[in-house]
# Entry
Amino acid sequence: MGMGDESYAGGKDGASVTGLSHGMVGGPGWAWFFGALVLAGIVLIVVVAVRALVGGIQRPARPAEHAPHATTAVHILTERHARGEIDTADFQERLRLLREE
# Structure
C-alpha cells in the first residue's frame, strides 16, 4: 500500500469512501424524514395562501328553516296562529304591538 491508499481503504480514522463517518448514526435516513416534513410544510403554506387569496371555501346556503329570519317574533306569531294556539284577534293585536316597536 502506498501513501494515497489509506483514503480508499477506510483511512486512518475509519471514514469510508463515501465520506460518512461514524458520527452519522443511521445514515441519511433521518434526512429523508426531515425533507418530507419540509415539503409538507411548504405545501401547507401554499394551500393556506391560495385559500386566503381566493376567499376560502364557499359553503352552500342554509335551508330556509334554519335561516336567521325564521326565528323572528313575527314568524313565531304567524306559526302559533296557523296552529290555532291564538285566535285571529289576538294575532292581529300582537302583530300590531310588534310592528310598533
